Amino acid sequence: MTSRRWYRVMAATTVGVTVLALTPGVAQAALAPDQWHCTRAQGADVLCVKMNQFLGWWTGLDVRYQHYSSTGQQVRVQLGWESTRGQSGDFGTQTLNPNQEWTPGSWADLPTGTCVTGKALAVDLPFDPSNPGGLYTQTVCR
Question: Which segments within 2-108 are labelled E, that is strand?
Answer without folding.
Answer: 37-40, 46-54, 57-67, 74-83, 88-96, 100-102, 105-107
